[in-house]
Write a structure and sequence with these properties.
Blueprint (H helix, E strand, L loop, with lengths): L1 H20 L14 H66 L2 H9 L4 H9 L3 E2 L2 E2 L1 E6 L4 E4 L7 H10 L6 E7 L2 E11 L6 E10 L9 E4 L12 E7 L4 H4 L4 E7 L3 H51 L13 H50 L1 H53 L6 H28 L8 E4 H18 L3 E4 L5 E4 L1 H17 L5 E9 L2 E8 L33 H11 L3 E7 L3 E9 L28 E5 L3 H13 L3 E5 L2 H10 L6 E5 L8 H11 L5 E6 L4 H9 L3 E4 L4 H11 L5
Helix pairs in contact: 1-2, 2-7, 7-8, 7-10, 8-9, 9-10, 9-14, 10-13, 11-12, 12-13
Organism: Azospirillum rugosum
Catalytic activity: ATP + protein L-histidine = ADP + protein N-phospho-L-histidine
Subcellular location: Membrane
Length: 768
């Protein structure tokens, strides 16, 4: 009953949306409260379904008949190809046997009786395989007595008896025999002395017939084979072999069995037909939605141009125009909030930089005074030492102040960026297959660039706070190198560069995720500063360590900068701070990750010719032990029933973040209980029919309440455990440690859509 009610509710929702989307079906005087994107989606779905039902079935029937005939022709062509390959193998074997028999030196030695088995065995052993086929060989004298063989062990006494009977003809012969139910080709070549033209012996060869067939569904039949019927739903194709005269009498034929109508082919027909129907439906949808889409396109184009100007010139008082109160209007307001926040952060950063310069100058003056006092007297030197200690403490406080500033700035900036990411993801889902979708993609590209800058700041803060877990274990290096080559090959080709990754079979002891991140940062750096030439990734073994090297033919690094390139925010060729060239944090992150992985990072460079970054990683000396395989996991209902929508509780006092998170969770198939305070969350839980499987709470809420307090209070009211997550932009080490000590997960803003999907799968127990 519950399933039937759920289906009824779904159909009611669809038809209600259809009535509200089509003006001629809407009751007079009724206002439409749904967003424009919803109405586009309902109209698009209705047109697409009608076209698929009417046209798809007829296209599927017509394509199936054509593909069946093509399938049978392909099977026969494959059988013919296998037959030609088998003919080439047999011809190669027979010609090799002729060459071995046409050897005057061996025939003369057999005639004189001076041949030695120790001389012939190494010679015959070099012919264990002919054209990849295992062959058993035996040399005999004129009395058909075995002299030497290649020790393959396939020749039997019955085979020697057949040779004795066939040798009297004085010409090459061949037949098919069976040993242990397996067919073998048995042949003989006569050894004739060229001077006396007399037969001095014979060469017997034997090889399995099945080894001559290179197709798994094909087999070789001969004149004496019993007829074989194909299995139910299959058909067979016989292709006779065209062979030399000595083998023609064997009647060898290639038999290839194949299914009459394979399901993958039928599926391909259906996909092609429905792709054409979908294309026609898309044309109708574009025509029907063009007028309303122009209105959205104008606002999105303005946001795209504004985002490009910010990335190119930085924040200089730009503002987005708010034309409506729908999703695009709320996105524009969130963009304006983000620009205001960035402007404030830039001013604070400039002021902090001036303070740091003043502190550094004061430290230099103190150091010079300390050296002067040290030269004057020992007492003065003691006081200078104390001044140096005090100066070091001041420097450490300045560094800590910088770290605290980055953490605070990251937190304040992540709140509006989180809203921007969630609303952009919701807007993309609502404008699927819409003309404005391309503009949303460009907007997402700009937002992703901003997120990457924030992620770099967050990575530095995490590494300084020692909040990055390290899992050192044996890792086959080729897994990491293959993934990197697949990821960056196309990017390098787009820049006109050649990317080569030399494979390695060694195993190192490291954290695979962190090592991949180090190499990815080095490859990004190489791509950014290489205009032509190539990039090479290779490995060298040095004792108990493996050297992974990333070479490039880029602009190189002057010697005076080599010691400072691993400092944060240090860039050589970017004096204008172009954001397209990053923030100067990539190599700083590489250095910190290398320390965590117990590795050494070195760099060698020649200006104008390129650079080489080297990572020394410990080798795993016990790499012979195999790692346990992952167990296959399954999920989903086995009885075919539609599962109930899971419930998520989201607590955030920021209305934009709360609304964006609610929209995105709903589109991913979840029922969302959104609350601004702990009291609202308790009220939503009391009225909800099901308990939540996921609880997400912002750390800083109104009234001084923290997310940890809300999670503890919610857990006390639940009868079964739920995945509890703290969502925050704060990267303070004390906060991260407190959340981890409470057994809760911590995620940093901005939360990307892919990370949210992974979190939902984890809450439902879906294996990664």
């Amino acid at each position: 009953m519950r399933d039937s009610h759920g289906a009824t509710a779904v159909f009611s929702h669809v038809f209600a949306g259809l009535f509200e989307s089509l003006p001629f079906l809407r009751p007079p005087g009724r206002r439409v409260s749904r967003p424009l994107a919803h109405r586009f989606a309902f109209v698009s779905a209705t047109l697409s379904v009608l076209l698929v039902i009417v046209v798809g079935a007829e296209l599927h029937r017509m394509a199936s008949d054509s593909l069946l005939a093509q399938h049978r022709g392909n099977v026969r062509a494959n059988a013919t190809l296998v037959a030609r390959q088998t003919e080439e193998l047999l011809t190669a074997v027979v010609r090799t046997m002729e060459d071995l028999a046409d050897n005057d030196a061996i025939a003369a030695a057999i005639a004189r009786g001076t041949v030695r088995k120790t001389d012939l065995v190494p010679f015959l052993r070099s012919f264990d395989r002919v054209a990849g086929v295992p062959v058993s060989l035996v040399y005999t004298d004129a009395t058909i007595t075995a002299i030497a063989d290649n020790r393959m062990g396939g020749v039997t006494a019955r085979d020697m008896a057949w040779l004795a009977a066939a040798a009297g003809s004085g010409r090459p012969v061949a037949t098919v025999v069976e040993d242990d139910g397996r067919p073998f080709l048995l042949g003989a070549e006569m050894l004739v002395h060229s001077a006396t033209l007399s037969q001095q012996g014979a060469l017997l060869y034997k090889l399995p017939l099945n080894a001559l067939v290179l197709h798994p569904q094909a087999h070789l039949r001969h004149a004496g084979s019993a007829p074989a019927e194909p299995a139910a739903g299959w058909f067979g194709t016989d292709i006779p072999l065209q062979l030399p005269d000595r083998l023609a009498a064997l009647g060898l034929t290639i038999r290839l069995d194949a299914p009459k109508a394979p399901e993958p082919a039928q599926a391909g027909i259906g996909l092609s037909a429905y792709a054409l129907v979908g294309l026609a439906a898309l044309v109708l949808i574009v025509v029907g939605c063009r007028t309303a889409g122009n209105h959205l396109t104008r606002s999105l184009r303005d946001l795209e141009q504004l985002a490009g100007a910010v990335l190119r010139d930085g924040c200089s008082g730009q503002r987005a125009t708010v034309r409506s109160d729908d999703e695009v209007g709320r996105l524009a307001r969130a963009f304006n909030m983000m620009l205001d926040q960035i402007d404030r952060i830039q001013r604070d950063r400039n002021r902090l930089a001036e303070d740091e310069i003043a502190v550094q100058r004061a430290l230099v003056r103190d150091a010079e005074q300390a050296r002067a006092e040290a030269e004057a007297a020992r007492a003065e030197a003691q006081r200078a030492c104390q001044a140096a200690v005090k100066a070091l403490d001041t420097a450490q406080r300045a560094s800590q102040a910088k770290t605290d500033f980055l953490a605070a700035a990251s937190h304040d900036l992540r709140q509006p960026v989180q809203s921007l990411v969630l609303l952009t993801g919701s807007l993309r889902a609502r404008l699927a297959d819409h003309p404005a979708e391309a503009l949303v993609g460009k907007l997402e590209t700009s937002v992703q660039a901003l997120c990457r800058m924030l992620e770099a700041l967050l990575d530095i803060s995490k590494l300084d706070a020692s909040a990055v877990p390290v899992d050192l274990r044996p890792v086959p290096l080729h897994h990491v190198l293959d993934d990197l080559e697949d990821e960056y090959r196309l990017r390098a080709a787009e820049q006109g560069l050649e990317l080569r990754v030399v494979p390695s079979s060694l195993t190192v002891r490291t954290d695979p995720a962190l090592l991949e991140r180090v190499l990815r940062n080095l490859l990004e750096n190489a791509l950014r500063y290489t205009d032509r030439g190539r990039i090479l990734v290779g490995c060298r073994r040095r004792g108990d360590r493996l050297l992974i090297q990333v070479h490039d033919t880029g602009i190189g690094i002057p010697p005076e900068h080599l010691e400072r390139i691993f400092l944060e925010f240090y860039q050589i060729a970017n004096p204008a701070r172009d954001r397209g060239k990053g923030l100067g944090l990539g190599l700083a992150i590489v250095h910190r990750l290398a320390v965590l992985l117990e590795c050494r990072v070195q760099v060698a460079s020649v200006p104008g010719r390129g650079s080489c970054f080297t990572i020394a990683i410990p080798l795993d000396m016990d790499s012979g032990r195999s790692a346990p395989g992952a167990e296959d996991g399954g999920g989903g209902d086995q009885d075919g029933r539609q599962p109930a929508r899971p419930v998520a509780l989201a607590v955030d006092d920021d209305p934009l973040v709360r609304e964006g998170l609610s929209l995105l969770l709903a589109q991913l198939g979840w029922t969302v209980l959104a609350a601004a305070t702990a009291a609202d969350a308790f009220d939503r839980l009391a009225s909800a029919p099901d308990q939540p499987a996921l609880v997400i709470a912002d750390h800083r809420l109104d009234g001084g309440v923290t997310g940890l307090e809300v999670l503890r209070a919610v857990e006390a009211r639940l009868s079964r455990p739920a995945l509890s997550v703290i969502l925050t932009g704060d990267t303070a080490p004390d906060l991260i440690a407190a959340i981890a000590a409470g057994g809760y997960r911590v995620l940093h803003k901005p939360l990307a859509v892919r990370d949210l999907k992974a979190l939902l799968d984890e809450a439902l127990g879906v294996p990664a």
